[in-house]
Design brief:
This protein is an alpha/beta fold. It is 40% helix and 15% strand. The strands form 2 sheets. Strands 1, 2, 3, 4, 5, 6, 7, 8, 9 and 12 form a 10-stranded parallel sheet that branches. Strands 10-11 form a two-stranded antiparallel ribbon.
């Protein structure tokens, strides 16, 4: 059997640590689609080679995620149980008090997490929220944790406020390809998302940005999403790859099953296209099972959300993750080798 040869484009970012980052668009949709079509052993071998150039393949970064403001979001994202458009039994809450957040952060740190991620179900934060958010960021950082927030869209001045408070990462996912996006969301444009990412970059924060697979999109859509991510200048430091969690009452509750090997392929392609990023197994990891997760780590995933709950959906429990890491010979990462 003849194996297709695909030459990996090299950018300045991939040549050496400390090189000037470059979000080269050399990884276009067609090239990534060809990558995704490779025989799986070939694709995993290439991804593992790239992974070993930049990371210890036995280390996995642990992030913990907390919903600090749950439900009542005015957006209509078709996958999201926190949208006010859908009746799924999620009650709208107010922004959590700082002491409550810090208690969760301490527990996450003591369980082994190195980054604490906080999500609020807003279209965008209001000015009155920023002082409280800044205090939360400062408190979490004093615990020795990296900080990440996802609060919806940001204006440049808001991004600067969060950066001044010491926020390390801001999460704002592109979710899917530009072509498929309108099938999932109508209340926020793709350009809105790109504008927020630019505001985050301009404020000096690191970007956490990825997407969701299994929403009924095609393989080409998955390739187009990865092309968008790889083409950001620079590409995100953290790339969460989510597997759709189908929640009853949302428009995507009956989305067709995705072949789990397609998820593995997406992880491998993300690693190859964004060599120095943390590629994170995020929502839906519990449903993947241990075998597929192991393949994902082989494909270059080196970060997970760690803890029993992801905002409002379930996650693999801590003891199960510890057992899996022991079986696979993995350990928690001591830190970012590219920081």
């Amino acid at each position: 059997m003849q194996v297709t040869t695909i030459q990996a484009p090299r950018s300045r970012r991939d040549e050496a640590p400390g090189a000037t980052p470059s979000g080269s668009s050399a990884w276009d949709t067609q090239r990534i689609e060809e990558l995704l079509a490779l025989p799986l052993p070939e694709l995993l071998w290439r991804a593992q080679q790239v992974h070993r150039e930049h990371f210890d393949p036995t280390e996995v970064q642990l992030s913990s995620l907390l919903s600090i403001k749950t439900g009542g979001c005015p957006e209509d994202c078709g996958y999201c149980p926190q949208s006010a458009h859908y009746q799924v039994g999620v009650e709208a809450d107010k922004l959590m008090d700082a002491e409550q957040v810090l208690a969760h952060a301490r527990a996450a740190r003591d369980a082994g997490a190195s980054r604490f991620c906080m999500g609020a179900a807003w279209r965008e934060p209001k000015e009155r929220d920023l002082d409280k958010l800044s205090g939360i960021i400062e408190g979490v950082k004093q615990l020795g944790l990296q900080t990440c927030m996802t609060l919806g869209m940001l204006q440049p001045a808001q991004a600067r406020r969060l950066a001044d408070a010491g926020l390390d990462y801001y999460n704002h996912n592109l979710d899917t390809s530009p072509q498929f996006y309108g099938s999932i969301i109508s209340t926020r444009t793709y350009q809105d998302r790109l504008d927020t990412l630019q505001a985050v970059r301009d404020a000096g924060m690191r970007v956490c940005c990825g997407g969701i697979v299994g929403m009924g999109e095609s393989r080409r859509d998955r390739a187009a999403l990865l092309a968008q991510l790889a083409g950001l200048d620079p590409y995100p430091e953290s790339v969460p790859i989510n597997s759709l969690v189908r929640v009853a009452g949302t428009p995507l509750e009956h989305a067709p099953d995705l072949d789990p090997f397609e998820f593995v392929r997406s992880v491998a392609a993300a690693r190859i296209c964004m060599p120095r990023a943390w590629v994170r197994l995020s929502a839906g990891r519990k449903e993947l099972g241990d075998g597929i997760q192991a393949l994902c780590f082989l494909a270059g995933a080196n970060s997970i959300f760690y803890g029993d709950t992801l905002l409002v959906t379930g996650n693999a429990d801590v003891d199960a993750d510890r057992r899996l890491f022991e079986r696979l010979g993995l350990r928690a990462s001591a830190g970012d080798p590219h920081a």
